[in-house]
């Protein structure tokens, strides 16, 4: 394995810490050997970690300490507001429900993050880190234990738009995959890290994510076994098994260890707790096959093809899953998730045989509303702008708030072979969000004022693994 010396790493570490206003007291720690972070580029922070689980975790906690502190504050503010429980309560759930189901490898990595933070003088501890990693699973947990019938509906911004295509649908006949992350802007503006990880076991992986999380969270990533992964959340899903394996563990394990679509499905299904239930879109560049795994708690459906496409926009598929595990309004064709599904199918048909990286970038920044037949960015368009609200349907009572698509990624098989993808941070579509202006116009969101940030427009850039295994 190619390694970087401490002499080469040291200037990068010192520069990063100095810019963040943190001290660099222990930059010669041997656990930092081979790890580095690059200067911010087009909104993205690129980090490289390598080694044993504890070492990877220490590098993570140490090199991203300012960003982890910031992300924790944003996640705490967003999650406690959504689930109506204190951070102290979330820490208790993390310790009693999630932590016992975390296998030793990822316990070591999470503990390493806490150790790296401590070396930087942070007061965050292991349960803060576990609670951060599980933050998208709390609505499912509380929804199950507090009502048993109330769906663990995601917040107004917790949606995504994704596709994967192959065969006659793509320009070169190989796989193209794309995803944009819809989130509330509190947490979503923190999805700005590109993780390049060479673990001691498993596969080299590259993924987007949030500082402090061992999984991508919005789940876009590639490994050197040729597996290309993304997902969209199943809308209005309910159900949770407190004895199951957390989604954040299964998602990271699948990214790190899967060597085939079957492998991926097996890892995601094993011990499934139902938390953060998703429809997963997967490609295997070795076989040119793609798959769609709808992973409910009771019902699991795996489809696959070597000539076709799968799309996601938070709509459930299996009729039994819809009836028994969701409260999704499947009979309403104008529900935003189904409007986006129609747009996806339209784009796939119109672009059959021409889908490539450039087409994927256009898809993920698309503002065409199938209801109004206009360019009208809102919660019904593939590139969502929930903060702008819907203006197209008289009397529409849909979602509103500071939320929407916060970044986007696209890759094809050729890029995946090089462990790379194109990424657009913030609003790559070109529409900026200005927090102060929004809060002035909508004082009901003043509770977010301490951590709500602007979302700037950024150019698409290529991000690539810096060290090949």
By DSSP, the count of extended strands is: 17
Return Rg in Å.
21 Å
Question: In the residues, how many domains can be counted?
Answer: 2
Task: Extract low-pLDDT stretches.
Answer: 1-25, 149-154
Rounded to the nearest angstrom, the distance between the terminal CA atoms is 5 Å
CATH architecture of the largest domain: 4-Layer Sandwich
> Which band does the percent of strand residues land in?
15-25%
- Which descriptor suits the 3D outline? globular
Mean pLDDT: 91
Helix content: 25-40%
Assign the structural class, choosing from mainly alpha, mainly beta, alpha/beta, alpha+beta, or little secondary structure: alpha+beta
In the CATH scheme, the class of the largest domain would be: Alpha Beta
Account of the 3D structure:
The N and C termini lie close together (5 Å). The strands form three sheets. This protein has a nine-stranded mixed β-sheet with strand order 1-2-5-6-7-8-9-10-11. The protein has a six-stranded antiparallel β-sheet with strand order 12-3-4-15-16-17. Strands 13-14 form a two-stranded antiparallel sheet. The protein folds into two domains: 107 residues, Penicillin Amidohydrolase, domain 1; 305 residues, Penicillin V Acylase, Chain A. A hairpin with a 4-residue loop joins strand 13 and strand 14. It has 469 residues and is an alpha+beta fold. Helix content is 33%, strand content 20%. Helix 4 crosses helix 6.
């Amino acid at each position: 394995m190619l390694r970087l010396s401490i002499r080469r790493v040291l200037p990068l570490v010192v520069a990063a810490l100095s810019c963040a206003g943190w001290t660099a007291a222990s930059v010669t720690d041997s656990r930092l050997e081979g790890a580095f972070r690059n200067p911010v580029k087009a909104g993205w922070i690129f980090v490289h970690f390598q080694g044993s689980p504890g070492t990877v975790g220490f590098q993570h906690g140490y090199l991203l300490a300012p960003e982890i502190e910031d992300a924790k504050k944003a996640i705490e503010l967003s999650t406690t507001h959504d689930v109506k429980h204190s951070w102290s309560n979330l820490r208790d759930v993390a310790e009693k429900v999630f932590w016992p189901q975390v296998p030793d490898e990822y316990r070591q990595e999470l503990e390493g993050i806490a150790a790296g933070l401590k070396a930087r003088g942070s007061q965050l501890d292991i349960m803060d880190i576990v609670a951060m990693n599980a933050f998208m699973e709390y609505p499912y947990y509380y929804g199950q234990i507090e009502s048993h019938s109330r769906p663990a509906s995601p917040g107004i911004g917790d949606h995504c738009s994704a596709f994967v295509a192959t065969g006659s649908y793509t320009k070169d006949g190989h796989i193209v995959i794309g995803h944009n992350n819809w989130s509330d802007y509190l947490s979503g503006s923190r999805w700005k890290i590109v993780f390049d990880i060479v673990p001691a076991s498993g596969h080299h992986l590259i993924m987007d994510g949030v500082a402090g999380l061992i999984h991508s969270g919005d789940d876009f990533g590639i490994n050197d076994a040729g597996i290309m992964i993304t997902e969209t959340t199943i809308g209005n899903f309910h159900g949770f098994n407190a004895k199951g394996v957390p989604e954040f563990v299964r998602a990271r394990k699948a990214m790190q260890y899967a060597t085939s679509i079957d492998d991926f499905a097996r890892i995601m299904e094993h011990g499934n707790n139902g938390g953060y239930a998703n429809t997963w879109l997967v490609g295997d560049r070795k076989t040119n096959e793609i798959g769609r795994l709808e992973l409910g708690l009771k019902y699991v459906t795996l489809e696959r093809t070597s000539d076709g496409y799968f799309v996601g926009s938070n709509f459930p598929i299996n009729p039994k899953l819809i009836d028994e595990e969701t409260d999704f309004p499947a009979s309403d064709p104008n529900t935003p998730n189904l409007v986006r599904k129609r747009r996806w199918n339209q784009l796939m048909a119109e672009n059959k045989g021409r889908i490539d990286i450039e087409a994927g970038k256009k898809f993920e920044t698309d503002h065409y509303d199938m209801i109004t037949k206009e360019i009208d960015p809102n919660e019904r368009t593939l590139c969502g702008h929930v903060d702008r609200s819907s203006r197209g349907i008289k009397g529409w009572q849909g979602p509103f708030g500071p939320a929407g698509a916060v970044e986007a990624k696209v890759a094809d098989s050729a890029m995946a072979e090089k462990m790379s993808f194109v990424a657009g941070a913030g609003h790559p579509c070109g529409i900026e969000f200005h927090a102060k202006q929004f809060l002035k116009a909508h004082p009901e969101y003043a509770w977010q004022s301490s951590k709500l940030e602007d979302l700037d427009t950024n150019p698409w850039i290529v991000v690539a693994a810096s060290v090949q295994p």
